[in-house]
Amino acid sequence: MTNQVDLSVEFVDVRGKNIQVLKGGEGETLLYLHSAGGETFPLPFHDALAEHFSLIAPAHPGFDQSSGIEKINDIEDLTFYYLEFLDKMNLDKVNIVGTSLGGWLSMELAVRWPERFKKIVLVDAVGIWLTEHPMAEMFGLEPAELRELCFYDPQSDIAQALIQDEPPEELLFLILKGLETTARLAWNPYLHNPKLHDRLHRINVPTLIIWGEHDKLVPLAYGQALNKAIANSKLEILKECGHMPIFEKMPEFVDLVVNFIKSK
């Protein structure tokens, strides 16, 4: 039986950008950075994390109701924006969890300002490139094709609910808006920063890498490469799981995060 956590949405001004922030829970602060899928509204994994932490989950500029994307042209711009967000929210030595695009952001932040973070969790993160294991193309796909890339079981109820063949108009607008923002940030080079891999040695805080064993979008080889490049890191592989452990293996994902962050 889980406790009911009240999650609320507020808006924060960060140097002229009106940023939507999902907040809730008590205890040690946990900053969650979302994927290109735009999990910006309250979802079961948010509730589960907020049972253990004081959760702060902003929507990146250009996603949902967050403004300011017109001033952001690439991942470096977004990284420096997040430094300003950390300052605005008085976040120092904070725990951070990033999924996919959010994992990339987490790494870009940590290679520049490792002292700002206590522990880092990377979940099926993009951000580097392995020529021998290219990431799959995510743009221009039909919903069924995207489900196949992102989920171990693309026919499951959760996969069908999250990537719908005919989403409602309001949801479709948010999806297209998120894809447009992702393309702005990561169209070329595709979903990575060519300089990042060689900078990962600068991450000197405990790092947990969580990966779906059957991720067809960002293969497991990327999790293994990150584990090799980040000295103080550990790789946890979730079986029968694709690109989105936060949905497909939510209880296991939450347990890993809680045990890692609360461990001494």
Give an overview of the whole structure:
This protein is an alpha/beta fold and 264 residues long. It has one domain: Rossmann fold, CATH 3.40.50.1820. It has helices at residues 44-50, 75-88, 101-112, 143-150, 157-162, 169-186, 220-229, 245-248, 250-262; strands spanning 8-14, 17-24, 29-33, 54-58, 94-99, 117-123, 207-212, 233-238. An 8-stranded mixed beta sheet has the order 1-2-4-3-5-6-7-8, with helices on both faces. Helix 7 (220-229) links the parallel strand 7 (207-212) and strand 8 (233-238). The longest helix is centred in the C-terminal third of the chain and has 18 residues, at 169-186. The chain is globular and about 40 Å long.
CATH architecture: 3-Layer(aba) Sandwich
Number of helices: 9
Count structural domains: 1
Q: Looking at this structure, what is the CATH superfamily?
A: Alpha/Beta hydrolase fold, catalytic domain
CA-to-CA gap between the ends? 27 Å
- Kindly report the CATH topology: Rossmann fold
CATH class division = Alpha Beta
Largest sheet: spatial strand order: 1-2-4-3-5-6-7-8
Low-confidence stretches: none
Helix-strand string: EEEHEHEHEHHHEHEHH
Rg, Cα atoms, Å: 17 Å
Mean pLDDT: 96
Beta strand %: 15-25%
Helix proportion of residues, in percent? Answer: 25-40%
Major pleated sheet: 8 strands, mixed
